[in-house]
Write a structure and sequence with these properties.
heterotrimer, A mainly alpha, B mainly alpha, C alpha+beta, B: mainly alpha, Four Helix Bundle (Hemerythrin (Met), subunit A), 7 helices, elongated, C: alpha+beta, Immunoglobulin-like, five-stranded mixed beta sheet, 9 helices, 39% helix, 18% strand
Amino acid sequence: MSDIPLSPLNPEWPRAQAESRAHGGLLSWVASIDHKEIAIMYLITTIFFFVVGGLEALAMRVQLAIPNNHFVSPEVYDQLFTMHGTTMVFLVVMPVLIGLATYFVPLMIGARDMAFPRLNALSYWLLLLGGALLYYSFLTSRAPDMGWFSYAPLSEKPFAPLPGPSFWALGLLLTGIGTVASAINIIVTTFSLRAPGMTMRRLPLFVWMSMVNSFVILFALPALNAALVMLLVDRKLSGNFFTPASGGSAILWQHFFWAFGHPEVYIMVLPAFGIISEVIPVFSRKEIFGYPFVAASTVAIGLLSFAVWAHHMFAVGMGHAMDVFFAVGSMLIAIPTGVKIFNWCATLWYGSIQFTTSMMYALAFLLEFTIGGLTGVMFTLVPVDWQVTDTYFVVAHMHYVLFGGTAFALFAAGYYWFPKITGRMLSERLGRWQFWTVLIGFNMTFFVQHILGFDGMNRRVFTYPDLPHWGLYNMISTIGAFILGFGALLFIINIEYSRRHGAIAGDNPWNAWTLEWATTSPPPPQNFDAVPPVRSRRPVWDLMHPEDPDWKDSH
Amino acid sequence: MAAAAPALTSRYLDPIRLGVLLLIATEATFFVFLISGYVYYRVMVHTTPTAAQELDPFKTGLFSIALFASSATMGVAHRRVHHPQRRGLALWLGLTIVLGATFLLGQGLEYVHLYRQQFTIARNVYGSSFFTLTGFHGLHVFAGLLILLTLTGLVMADRRHAIPDVAFDAAAYYWHFVDAVWVVIFTLVYLVK
Amino acid sequence: MGLAMLVLLPTFDPASPYAAATHHLLLISLWMAAGIFALVCFLVFYAIIRFRYRPGQGTPKRISGNRNLEIAWTVGPFLLLVYLFIATLHSMAGTDPSAKNAAPALTVIGHQWWWEVRYPDGVVTANEVHIPAGQRLLIRLEAADVIHDFWVPRLGRKMDMIPGKPNEMWIGASQPGVYQGSCSEYCGREHAWMRFKVVAQTPADYTAWLSQQAQLPPAPSSAEAEQGAKDFQQLTCANCHRIAGTAASSGVAGPDLTHVGSRLTLGAGRLINNPQNMREWLRSPETYKPGCYMPNLRLTPAQLDALTAYLEGLK
């Protein structure tokens, strides 16, 4: 195998690795600057916060199970939904996607680590510190209770004199800085550390989408950071930015927040698209259909995501001209998203579909995400938004995108990549149970919420009057939530069981084609001793089928 | 393996240069939002006193010239990096630091003056947006000074000229960026009435 | 059955031309979404059945893409969106017609957590908006503290009520009736119980109601009510609540109670207005609306009876 060229080394790698290995035990994790170890810390942290956020959601569902319930007080309920939203967005979905990118981007491009290993560690520790600060607020008598969107002036001192919103702002600033650092790291890694032959046109789609995602982070997070700084000036230095009583503007907060908040939606879903673009081809035994279109549509989504923010503000009364402008931007974004769905479907056709748990999640993703996408288009139709925004229809829509979309993709990623990370397979048997439990629980919880929205039930209400059907639909939703919670628990049980007793995975249990499968499971500290030559989008296929390599075919 | 190393720099972008450019891009976006906040309040809200009425463009202009000049001295220092002996590098870096510190001193004096006039961050939206915007810029100048001080110290201790060029590239890019942001802020806050 | 259930939903049961314009677009978008979802279902399920792995099957042949298909599924959705865009413009004009050169007929002000409704000629009521059926009124929406949102699903669009930025919109109902409304923007602890009703009356009834509301309330009709009127002034009630024609003329923190006896609900939709509920509400507001700003004054049973008699008499 003397013709196999070596990959360019990250110059910092050997020294970094030596330092990381110098200590044993727990300290080696704390001091680690190895991208795989940092990524594992990301994943464990996000699973922890997923459990916390999930328990908050279950408490809310208990409260809403029947009309006029007294399970929790409105004060507690407000803290629950604020912390649930904030936790899931900032401490679960965003960091788990960054964690996966931290693990797999270097492996998939044939690099030995991220471009800046120390910065990588800093990002993770900032996330943990921000999360700790956010949750510390519970000990100060009251956690933030003004909603994850923190609309002024409800978040300002006159209406929120307790320190909750300040902890919220500080916590998000810290995680936000960490996230921006991760984004820089992922972009630089992708541009600078690719193995020879790994051109941009051969880049795995997960890497493509993580990179585009990082650009979106780079330009979206500053909007939030600026708004948080201004909110802190208001709260701590008696500033006047968002207090209408002293000349400030309640609307400006909304513009700043959504200038971040809508790109944020794509930040939470683009890498999930990347996961689906890896899993579907492998289990269809067929390369992705329309690679350039899937990659280019990602760029289109990334760019358009900055021209849609005010569709969250149609009810503000901005005037029809503004409404129409943002409606057009929001409608256009449906096109590249649709292109992706159709390309994934086309990848399935004429394939040889293997129903692994990972693939079942990816197939379910196609349907669930389509529902969330279509209801998303409904919100671009301004009068429909005027009717159902801020109702349970939004709650349903957004969970179809973030759970039916992102979380399903993450479960697919879990079953797909767990063998690479641990060297053992997740139990497929438990996986089947888990899949059907989650599928049934999820749809039961959230499908009826569409109807509740049409029925006039607002979001963020701690209880509701006993109007016809409201109790019934809410009860169905609550039962579904517990089934879904049980499904999530099965996943954690599967991880705990399989990491000890799972079948040994071997290097490439799925016969997959990207570079992370060209090394051992788990990969050695240096990732690769030698990187296979990259002459097509499927280097491991070429390695295994020297008689019929891709590069002789078309690319 | 050593043979592969040059390929890294010739075929791909240098990680540190690219990283600093991305940092500048995200920081610039942050300032775009602070600046648009300032402009929004200036256009939409009509209360007095405004920062614009209280400010002295001439005095601040003089201190601004110090900052603009520091970009020029940074440029000279940056060129000295490639000089065989890196002669004069520490001197020009030091000059940049002095000019940057002069600017910060001017900003400090201005703040003291404004606070004596009861023009504070809590006074009204102009106060809030003026101090937040210029304060965050000042913070960036301060961070730049720390970087330059560190570099100067290293250069003076570095007899074999082993500090890689990219370290100076990164510092120079950042310093020019901080300077450019001030051009925009100075124009909008002090010159446009 | 599914359709029958949809008809029961307020958003599918428009009672004004504005809501009808939205409803039309809503139906178009739902049918279109259903069609596209059916297409994706077909693509996925057909593939699952037809192209599943079968033992002995070789590797599928390479298909890297198809330019014509890519163009088709880019242009197809684009054309659908163009149609939806035109339908949206049409629906916007119908749902939210221009209010240029029109003066608002009434003002609704959102408070944490109740609604103040002000008519010209000094009529002030709370938590219910009376309108003449078959006519349109321009309403002005304001907020006293934080952002609220005015929403009556069967009558039309929702509109935020933002401190420092008044909004205006048309409201009307084709038929007389009572329509459910609520605050649709999270506004703090009792957001859930910030509800109201729109009462659409025949124009004659509406005029009668308005002139009755403009008059001073009847004097207390019993000794108990007489005592209640005194208690109202002596206890701290009058600090927050106004009753026209009495010494309680300056309270603005809580709803105007001039004609509270004639209202449909108490506590912004929390309780049906009857003497029993009024007594309960006065006895312990926090039981029914925890966190609300109305304090528990620890009234004695006699005070409760007296105040209830007085307030329920304010018709």
